[in-house]
Amino acid sequence: MTIKTSPGRGANSALDAPSSLNPNNTLQRALEPVAGASTLDRRLAALPTLEDRLLEIVRTVEGRVTFSTSLGIEDQAVLNAIAASGANIDVFTLDTGRHFPETLETLETSENRYGLKIRVMFPDAHEVEELVSRDGIQGFRFSIENRKACCDVRKVRPLKRALAGAAGWVTGLRREQSAGRSHVAFAAWDSADGLVKLNPLADWTFQQLEDYIAANDVPVNPLHARGFPSIGCQPCTRAIKPGEDIRAGRWWWENEDGKECGLHNRPRQKDAAA
User: Fold this and answer.
1) Which residue from 59, 120, 112, 107 is spatially nearest to 86, judged by alpha carbons?
2) 80: exposed, middle or buried (Cβ count in 10 Å: 0-12, 13-18, 19+)
3) What whole-number distance in Å separates Cα of residue 60 and Cα of residue 58?
4) Residue 268, Cβ neighbours under 10 Å: how many?
5) pLDDT for residue 213 is more than 50
6) Rg (CA), the chain
7) Is the distance from CB of 195 to CB of 164 less than 8 angstroms?
8) Has residue 181 been placed in a domain?
9) Do the beta carbons of residue 236 and residue 223 sit within 8 Å?
10) Which of 95, 187, 209, 244 has the least CB density, counted as fewest CB within 10 Å?
11) Does the pTM of the predicted model rise above 0.90?
12) Which residues contact 12 (CB under 8 A, 6 or more apart)?
């Protein structure tokens, strides 16, 4: 990743200096994208609005910036801000083949509302057939390993294809969503994909999110009103009970803490941010 120095800003990171000054310094070259992400993290934290943060992202990150939307409430806020700001950000979603009908309806409603084309990424049909042949149509219920294998085929691998060649990856992650996301940065270098991961909602509370949705009349998945704060594949998502964690309805039959599908906690050499 290359960070552009905005007009009037002085050099404030290793990335502001041309790497050609030290062409043989392997360590410096390896640290440059980390330092650049750290610099951007501080810039985003200082900006007051979601729209400002998205515009700063596209001004700063050289190359294609892409946004992965699950069509949940956080991602709908980001989508609205992309449309409102005119930020040049590619938008895609993952169709696992197991979505709620309401999720697909939200996709169509959003495209019509904002006039934005949302790329739909599908899993490889042959890989899905092999998975089902081996584990069964509901095999993900039998073990955590089976469930993670299903998520890998239906979500993680299509995500890798969607991110190929991108310089920045925008998500709707918030620190409040779960204990495992409590330290989410605004910008962090993702060494596994060779891009900067960007979370412009990182510090938002749920109340801020609801206020933004209401103020901008943002279309949201109707399942949110039926007790589904976090919406994934239909067989793996249920409504939560009063007092439960907002992600308690995901893979509810598992007892493992910090449950994730692998999109945001894939093995990495190192992620870094301020």
Assistant:
1) 59
2) buried
3) 5
4) 13
5) yes
6) 19
7) no
8) yes
9) no
10) 244
11) no
12) 39
- How far apart, in Å, are the Cα atoms of 99 and each of 103, 141, 250? 6, 17, 13
Within 13 A of 30's CA, how many CA atoms are on the CB side?
Answer: 8
| Residue 227 belongs to some domain of the structure | no
pLDDT of residue 263: 60
Residue 212 maps to which CATH number? 3.40.50.620
Token duo for residue 137: 């149509």
184-199 tens-digit pLDDT? 999 999 998 999 999 9
Beta carbons within 8 Å of 48's beta carbon, 6+ residues apart: none
Both tokens assigned to 210: 């609801």
Residue whose structure tokens are 């891009």:
195
What tens digit of pLDDT does each residue of 87-110 get? Answer: 999 999 999 999 999 999 999 999
Domain of 152, in residue numbers:
14-221+258-272
Sole residue written with tokens 């989410």: 184
Residue carrying the six token digits 């943060």: 53
SS3 state at 245: coil
The total number of residues written for the chain in this structure? 274
Q: Is residue 56 part of a domain?
A: yes
Q: What is the DSSP letter of 252?
A: T
Number of structural domains found in the chain: 1
Confirm if 229 and 237 have CB atoms less than 8 A apart: no
Cα of 267 vs its chain's centroid, Å: 16
Residue 261 annotated in active site: yes
Of 150, 151, 236, 261, the active-site residue reads: 261
Residue 266 pLDDT exceeds 70: no
